[in-house]
Amino acid sequence: MRIRDLKLARSGFFVLAFLMLSSGLGLSFAYADEYSAATTASQTLPSPSKEVESVTRDLLKNFQDNQAYYKKNNDAFVKETAKLLSPVIAFDSVARGVMGKYTRMATPLQIKQFTETFESSLISFYGKALLNINGKNIIIEKVDAVPDRVMKDYQAGNISQIPVTMTVKTSDSAVSIAYNMIFDEGRWKLRNIIVDGINIGSQFRRQFAEAVGQYYKNASKETKTNADAIQYVIDNWLGILSGTIKPSDDKAATSAG
Q: Would the pTM of this model clear 0.90, i.e. be above it?
């Protein structure tokens, strides 16, 4: 299932999940294990659930207070979103995770290009979708506490991340958002987001791979190379994300070379 087809993504809950944490927590989608037992074993760590709830409530209030202005000034909202997210999301790690195995086939320049493209498309596409939510009707119903045994297991190195589950309600639905948290460099960081059981990081990675696969099926012999396929997806990522460009289009695929 494509991200763009998900009701949750169209409603803006995906970006809301990012925004809920971005103002106070570092974010990282790194798929390699970033956990270090040596870093945490000697510390008494604060509960990530309390920090998540505090930041969420502060950010949600700000969004509610300014939503009318942002709806009249979409570009201002996108700029503010970019200002908020850019410093605290490890977009390089996110992009590498989304590219998956194709990271090893891409050039350093292509990885840099996709990182920049992924960041701008994420903020623009989903940031604008968030404006369709009636912020005044969003309520944080609960944030599940992290059991002491889970914290102990994490600090002992028995588990590599801690799940924090939040339930958000609107006027007509309830959404479960699960944050997979790691403690790194003195703060809690977000490693992945699961919205109503849908793993967002995996969905993006699957979409990238599918686009590359469709390109190979339709590209001319002269342009059927890893470099051309990856470059095509990079150049057309926003269109692929929104569904306005489909790699299965012969004309689109063969024009990438």
A: no
